[in-house]
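The records we work with from here on pair a chain with its fold. Here is one such record, which you should read through line by line:
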Amino acid sequence: MPDADCVKKVYTLKNLGCANCAAKMEYKIKELPGVEYAAVSFVTKQLRLSAKDHEALLPAIREICTSIESDVEVVPRSGTQPFNFETRVYTLEHLGCANCAAKMEKAINNLPEVSAATITYATKQLRLTAKNHADILPEVQGICSRIEDGVRVVERTGKTVLASNIEQRKKSGGLLSMSDEQRSLAEIILGGVLFIISEIASIVPEAWHIYCLVAAYILLGGRIVLIAVKNITKGQVFDENFLMTLATLGAFAIRQYEEAVGVMLFYRIGEYFEHRAVEKSRSQIMDAVDMRPEVVNLLVGEEVRVLPAEEANVGDILLVRVGDRIPLDGVVIEGESLLDTSPVTGEPVPVKRGFGDEVVSGCVNTSGMLKIRVEKILAESMVTKILDSVENAAASKPQLDRFITRFARVYTPVVVAIAVLTALIPGFVTTGDWEYWIYTALTFLVISCPCALVLSVPLTFFSGIGAGSKYGILFKGGVTIEALKNVAAVVMDKTGTVTKGNFIVQKLVPSHDITQAELLQICAAAELVSSHPIANSVVAAAKQQNLQLQRPQTFEEIAGEGLVAETAAGKVLCGNQKLLERFAVDFTVREVADYGTEVLVARDGKYLGQIIIDDTLKDDAVEAVRALKKLRLTTAMLTGDAAASAQAVAQAAGIDEVRAKLLPQDKLNELSRLRKQYGAVMFVGDGINDAPVLAGADVGAAMGSGADAAIEAADVVFMNSEMKAIPQAIAIARETNRIAWQNVIFALVIKVIIMAAGLAGYASMWAAVFADTGVAMLCVLNAIRILYKKV
């Protein structure tokens, strides 16, 4: 019975952005002493708690939540608000500034009607959880356009838009339109030509020198100055346009005309190539994961009609030619071909598919024409699920990303303050060389924008997500990638994870005067009409040896024991010890099996022998375990199977530790023990009973062939269901985190060096521009390296 002294309360979890993190919070809160009941709902961002002393528990609950997801705030819910929060996804058209995106996200989250808002610059999407989207949308639009002029908030529809289709993305604001891009390039070229002409004294009379520089500045910086002025009227002071305007106009004020124009030219060139690099990176990542078809070939009689993919319905017959992708999930009704499944599973070996076989969208038809019957519409097909997973993952920000966002809010005001102090204090206190110190301060203004950090860190994690998808690995967020780098032990379930999950005859032990083939034939004939997996494995083994099987005349299955069949050869028993004991058959001569499942066979009361059946090790299990050990990880296996069978599998695969005959709760206890012994643990499973352990692990991973409950609870999904994906995922995560930190350290070190050089008397606005746009471009290029690295 529930404790009568317990009080029920509801708390809002502000900034909760990860469904699996919510599951982990719930699991840990339930373990707190004094908690009778706890349930965290990711949909409503709420914690329902039943406990005696809420005040005493609240600090511990807050510590749990922030340790799992750093920005989460646990706030007692006031009043009786209805559970009517809804999450929608919006596209931010014409979004072109990563730092502005971070400011928008903060401002939108501050709205009282908003439960959570996440802007992903890599996909230019806003995921908004709020009560009434129609009422709040004008406010959201106002925030976005105030921070960055021209940004439009448009609700994403279900209509297919290929990320690899440049024309489509231009319309949605993913790229600069051709007119904008051409205009920017024209401004850079004309401004650059005027700047060069002004520097060649023999071409331009001395009197015209200043006019050429002013004209060049207007061409290069006119738009930036106008944007800066417009942003100031909206209260946006510390943005890149304002800082560049202040720095270059300040250079004009101290008669550094060439420096002002040259810096603006260098800045515009850097900005142009930075945009190109970002869009190229985004395109490459999305090309790797967006396999949704624009059109399908619908068969109507003998006529082929081309129609948009989203208009195809279940039951439609589609024609798939050689070289085409399978457009939608379906079943082959005519034809035979080899399919390249690597775009979906990462597995390069072609798979044969023919009549009656299921086919998954995204795979490439390589050899023969196929006709398929649609089983799932576009919104439910594999290609859409993969893209949605990647987009959702991009919206789940790691702690490093969140830290950089918070750091950026402080960084710019601090550097600007240093610039002001640099311009004023030395002139009063020391040399009085005002022009030099003002120039030095202007260099600080140029490098005070944190775009290199705010842009490159999320792009790095997005690249890691894209790299995983190329190997059939779906990370459910940057949080997962960040957590994987800390994993010290990999714990695996046995059946379906380390083994294939299909029973195969391993050994035939005949007794008396019959052969192995006769033993197998007698048992398989009796098992012929059974649908049990063990029976199927015996029949399959007999068919492989081309043994003739005659259906039994009568058949009876006894639950938990085996079966009894009347055959032409006599009364056959196939089962365990209990079955033979029931019919008083003497089987004391049998060998005791030290692994697997044994099927004892008797005929007409006489023991004939035993068949040992066991699950088979996955082909890549040994190689995968070896790869994990190279990564200096401890391996362990937790299973509910018998100890002998588990030990045999673990020994064959090379797994370090094994625990057998475990119930789901026992697995959780063992997981806690392993965590205390080694550190953070990753659990890999595929069954329904693995869901609690997956949620309780530091990182949970599920095989794509496993139960839906396991896949839902996991942080990572291995689409190819192969063990080699485990070390691949960890290697990708480690490399992604390494690159992210490289970008952070590189950007900060360069900025500090330029600032120190300025204070030491070696100031240069040219170097400052490199520390801004140049470093940002290099960090972007470094961020996408993971896409090309083999793991």
The longest strand covers residues 499-510. The CA atoms of residues 703 and 721 lie 5 Å apart. The chain has a mean pLDDT of 82.
